[in-house]
Design goal:
The protein is of the alpha/beta class. The protein is 49% helix and 17% strand. Strand 7, helix 9 and strand 8 form a beta-alpha-beta unit.
């Protein structure tokens, strides 16, 4: 695989959302993860929230057993989640902010204010071999803090750019995109691996995919939604095509 290959991580949280609406076993997020893997996903992302609103503990167990691509385990910086991650030792752990009342992750982690706490939190995860990623806004202060605490990877929050695009605000979207571009380059210059995600669609993915410093995009809600209309395999194929085209 070339150095220019942009990895696609498919987030399967919202397959579990649909399953949990009925409280049964269908649709199975592990089946979705395997399908996404077969369709060309380079990794699978799953967020075990404190309130277990979508992914459940058994899903993490099942994913660890079933996958041959890496699992990116998204979690809040809590003792409970740290214990679960230390037990499973997933390839990657992405620390995300989490508020119970939010519908989805709103904004990046406040690293600069919690630097000491987060440095101590991620050290045991690194010690067992997890690659630790921090989900942050395109903000130099937060990137500097993530670097200082020993994170190997940052994931830039693309939500504001995608929201402005969806709201038909091209100037604001362009401003956010420029911040993402600049901070991708800045983080890369510090030796951090750069990922990006949140809210990306077929319409918004290519400008972000074109940033040479970005190594991975994590995309979930849109792909699961699109799979209702075209099937998961074609939905992933189309995202992969657009990413490769932007990279080419």
């Amino acid at each position: 695989m070339s150095d220019n290959h942009l990895r696609l991580g498919v987030n399967i949280d919202h397959v579990a959302t649909i399953r949990n609406a009925r409280g049964g076993a269908y649709p199975d997020p592990i089946r979705a993860a395997k399908l996404a893997e077969e369709a060309g996903a380079d990794g699978i992302t799953a967020h075990l929230r404190e309130d277990r609103r979508h992914i459940l503990d058994a899903d993490i167990e099942g994913l660890m057993e079933a996958l041959t691509v890496p699992l990116n385990f998204e979690m809040a910086a809590t003792d409970e989640m740290q214990k679960i991650a230390l037990r499973h030792k997933p390839h990657a752990v992405c620390i995300v902010p989490e508020k119970r009342e939010e519908r989805t992750t709103e904004g990046g982690l406040e690293v600069a204010r919690e630097e000491n706490k987060l440095a101590h939190f991620i050290a045991p995860l690194r010690d067992v071999g997890c690659r630790v990623s921090i989900f942050i806004a395109a903000d130099q202060r937060q990137i500097d803090a993530a670097h200082r605490i020993g994170a190997e990877v940052i994931e830039l929050h693309t939500g504001a750019y995608c929201d402005y695009h969806a709201e038909g605000k091209p100037e604001e979207a362009a401003r956010e995109l420029e911040a993402l571009r600049e901070m991708s380059a800045y983080a890369h210059s510090l030796g951090l691996e750069v990922h990006a995600g949140h809210g990306l669609t077929y319409d918004t993915v290519q400008p972000v995919a074109a940033f040479p410093e970005v190594r991975e995009l994590n995309i979930g809600h849109f792909l699961i939604g699109e799979s209702i209309f075209r099937g998961l395999t074609p939905a992933v194929h189309e995202m992969r095509r657009l990413m490769d085209e932007a990279r080419g």
